[in-house]
Amino acid sequence: MENFYIEDWFPLIMFASLGILVFSGLPVAFVISGIGIAFGFLGMAYDVFSFIEFFNIVSRIWGGIAENMVMVAVPMFIYMGTMLEKSGVAEDLLECLNVLMRKVPGGLALSVTLMGTIMAATTGIIGASVVMMTLLALPVMLRRNYDPSLATGTIAASGTLGILIPPSIMLVLMSDLLSVSVGNLFLAAIIPGLLLASLYTIYIFVRCQMQPHLAPPLPDAEAVHGTEMVRMMVRSFIPPVFLIVLVLGSIFAGFATPTEAAGVGAVGATFLALVKGRLKWDVLKDVCERSALTGAMLFFLFAGATVFSYVFRSLGGDDLVIDLVDSAGLGAWGVLFLLMLIVFILGFFFDWVEITLIVLPIFAPVIAQLDFGDHLAVAGIGPTETQVLTWFAVMVAVNLQTSFLTPPFGFALFYLKGVAPKSITIQQIYKGIIPFVILQVIGLLLVMYFPELALWMPNTILE
């Protein structure tokens, strides 16, 4: 019988401790860093960790997060999305889309989906997106006698597109964790993001065509025609769409870095609020406070995750994970399906930030060593480590969006329930999201089976 050494299992115990203590109610950033520091001292007691290594963590935080210029884009993207929400630009956009699509079956639901797709390009914070969409769209949909389950399902699914469609904060974070170009990930996520939005659109259109009572059309008395329609388009639709195209286009065309483009987006959102006469002191103050608090929360998590991942690796966590995967004998596809299942299950309990910071540093080395050469070669893609990691990152992003809608602990559902009218029950919300979860699983399987969906744009544009 082989000798059993408890220190060999410290990384596994460390991971299990995180899964338990995250429910303690303490701030997650402090839980992650606290576990890392505690196991660092425990490792010192067993001579598998030295005190001097704590100083390496400080240099990693300052040299990795604080000096990473791409990370500067995160608070500016948050500011951009918050300003568009608080200044009423998003509300005007929904009203315009509602009028434009009034003749289409399920026009208001389709407008919500289209708005979610457009607004996804302004913020990757799920809570902000879902709350905003619920406050703006749900009362209107209920007044139009929309089916509550269809209305809530559409809002929850559309509101979560923000973590996938660029410029997504999650993709910025992933690029740093995987050492992959952020522009590469932005390009890779566009087609999968639009694929999910298209699946939502087709489902809503077909279902409302077959069951018109679920989504009554806009009354003719509220229609807008001629000059008024043009004025509404110029005032409410073109400005935010132009801003988003400007931000993304400048990144993809190579005119600006993601950080510079985020600055343009923040200034542009402020300018739109000014032009609309809504840039009041109270609005500006609220936007700055919310952006600062959200940014501080994210960067505390970044620092805490750096502590956790360093100690985890120093205690042999990478080797332990690789050995466990090898001993399971699952093969490349078995490991990939297992990791996707783990991410999906973690999404029941954790926010995307914690999942990304915990899972990617641990499993990225495993994925990089797996052989998907034949699968990627069939798609005409060179099976390099960067290609595999980019494909994996996009699948994780699609998976995380799916997990946000899964009962009983889908965070998007709680955000929606928290601000929805009291007449909306949690059972109606659960019923409404089931079709969209199925559509998202289909989208994930399509990206998995057809890797060119994620890799065609970066390979074509960045050649």
From TrEMBL:
It holds the Pfam family DctM. The chain crosses the membrane at residues 12-45, 57-79, 108-138, 150-173, 185-206, 237-255, 261-279, 291-312, 332-350, 357-382, 388-416, 428-450. The keyword Transferase does not apply. Keywords: Cell inner membrane, Cell membrane, Membrane, Transmembrane, Transmembrane helix, Transport. Its main location: membrane. It is a multi-pass membrane protein. Residues 17-453 form the TRAP C4-dicarboxylate transport system permease DctM subunit domain. It is found in: Cell inner membrane. The complex comprises the extracytoplasmic solute receptor protein and the two transmembrane proteins. Belongs to the TRAP transporter large permease family. NCBIfam families: dctM. PANTHER family: SIALIC ACID TRAP TRANSPORTER PERMEASE PROTEIN SIAT-RELATED, SLL1103 PROTEIN. Part of the tripartite ATP-independent periplasmic (TRAP) transport system. This is TRAP transporter large permease protein. It comes from Thalassospira xiamenensis. The lineage of its organism: Bacteria, Pseudomonadati, Pseudomonadota, Alphaproteobacteria, Rhodospirillales.
